[in-house]
TrEMBL record:
Keywords: Membrane, Transmembrane, Transmembrane helix
The protein's name in its UniProt record: Uncharacterized protein
Transmembrane feature ranges: 40-62, 96-116, 122-140
Source organism: Roseococcus pinisoli
Length: 465
């Protein structure tokens, strides 16, 4: 038998059983005479039976809903939707049952009101109840599509809101968990960064600062140093419970645009031609190159930056030839004026070069080569020529491969400190005393970093000039 016929057949059989009982009672002389003589009792009995029938119907519906809930195929979304329904029954079921009860009980009462002995007032009440219930039910049904659409839209929005809140809570929990997991490494990194910057700041402020012009270093530099030392000491004492924000704040003061290192970089920048990113890129490139040079090349590089007195040890034998000296003669205005006409003399340039590389070269020039206005002019011309020779050797030390490697390593620095992939090193030109002092301070700082094996490129990458 098809399953959809089972329930109606069961109801029919129950009804037939009731009729059979009444028929058997009538045959036995137990007819419903007393009930008919008391219509109110009959009505009460009928209402009771109707109530039992509807209770059985509700029980059957609830059993179907529980079966649905126990079904493994039921999704969590469907279960959540059932929780929002009255008695977990399909929408409109309870409203329809109430309307049916009123109709099944009320209509017979209204139709047989005279047989039941109901007065007009009671009949009017029953009529009002039936009209109100039916009017509400069919009126609600007439607006159901719009109401359902609005409710479904509201449910969808509410569901989206719940999903969004759940996602936000999940993301917040994930971020918090990630923060807790990375806290030790972040603390270690922050402490290492502050320690590096603090070491450089101490060199500039405490060791080189007294010799620098006033105003080159920020007035708050000493305060920043004290605060950084306190934050670093507290972090070491607290270990994993250290205050990360205090470490970052102390580091930001030292690495900001007005920090000690950034201030010296800004002061020295006008002495170098600007790179693609600006003058700071040229300074950063020179510092990175100086740290990576060999010992002999570093001595020449430092002598050029410091404009140090001539040292014969800066030039290896044979590295300066008459041909290179002739090329550099144009960079020494005094020598170019006096000696360019004599370059055609055999052996003249070799003799001049031999004289200039001796320790008493100024006296020899004044004695052997006429044309100088005074011994001072001879010494000045000699200094110009030697500086030109030193620049040639320094430029030869700065190989293109080394320049490209340092420029690439500075790509992680602030934009103002990036020299660019096609940058070319430029040696500083003469400038005011403040700029010269700043450049000399950087050269001395670079020497200290070389001795402590501290690469300046990561220090520069941490700046925010």
């Amino acid at each position: 038998m098809p399953s959809f016929l089972a329930i109606p057949l069961r109801i029919l059989l129950i009804g037939l059983s009731g009729v059979s009982i009444l028929f058997c009672a009538r045959l036995a002389g137990l007819g419903p005479g007393p009930l008919l003589e008391a219509p109110g009792t009959l009505v009460a009995l009928l209402i009771f039976l109707v109530g039992l029938g509807f209770a059985a119907f509700l029980w059957w519906l609830a059993a179907r809903c529980f079966t649905l809930l126990r079904d493994p195929a039921t999704t969590p979304e469907q279960m959540a939707a059932l929780r929002d329904l009255p008695l977990a029954l399909p929408e409109g079921t309870v409203r329809a049952l109430l309307a049916l009860i009123v109709g099944i009980v009320g209509l017979p009462l209204l139709l047989f009101s005279q047989s039941l002995g109901l007065n007009d007032a009671i009949a009017g009440y029953v009529n009002g109840i039936i009209a109100g219930v039916f009017g509400f039910y069919f009126g609600a049904r007439s607006t159901t599509p719009e109401a359902q659409a609005a409710r479904r839209l509201g449910d969808a929005l509410e569901g989206q809101q719940r999903v969004s809140e759940a996602l936000q809570a999940s993301e917040a929990a994930a971020r918090e968990a990630a923060t807790r997991a990375t806290q030790p490494s972040r603390l270690a990194e922050a402490m290492a960064t502050l320690e590096r910057q603090l070491g450089v700041a101490r060199l500039l402020v405490q060791r080189l600062g007294p010799a620098l012009p006033a105003g080159l270093l920020p007035a708050e530099a000493e305060t920043w140093l004290d605060r950084a030392e306190q934050a670093l000491g507290a972090a070491r004492a607290l270990g994993g419970q250290a205050d990360l924000a205090a470490l970052q704040s102390a580091t930001a003061a030292l690495t900001g645009r007005d920090g000690p290192l950034a201030s010296v970089l800004h002061a020295a920048a006008p002495l170098l031609p600007a790179t693609a990113a600006g003058p700071l890129g040229g300074v950063a490139l020179l510092l990175g190159l100086g740290w990576n040079l060999g010992s002999a090349a570093w001595r020449r590089f430092r002598a050029r930056l410091l404009d140090a007195p001539y040292d014969p040890a800066l030039f290896e034998p044979g590295t300066v030839t008459p041909a290179s000296a002739e090329l550099r003669l144009a960079d020494a205005p005094i020598f170019a004026r006096l000696f360019t006409p004599r370059l055609i003399e055999p052996g003249f340039l070799a003799g001049l070069l031999d004289t200039c590389l001796r320790e008493d070269a100024a006296d020899r020039l004044w004695a052997r080569y006429p044309g100088f206005a005074s011994p001072e002019e001879a010494a000045l011309g000699l200094a110009e020529f030697r500086r030109a020779l030193l620049e040639e050797r320094v430029e030869a030390d700065l190989a293109p491969e080394l320049v490209a490697r340092i420029a690439q390593s500075l790509e992680g620095a602030a934009p103002a400190l990036r020299p660019g992939p096609t940058a070319r090193p430029s040696l500083p030109v003469p400038g005011d005393e403040t700029a010269q002092a700043a450049l000399q301070a950087l050269a001395l700082l670079l020497g200290e970093l070389r001795e402590s094996h501290t690469d300046p490129v990561p220090l520069l990458a941490e700046l925010a000039p």
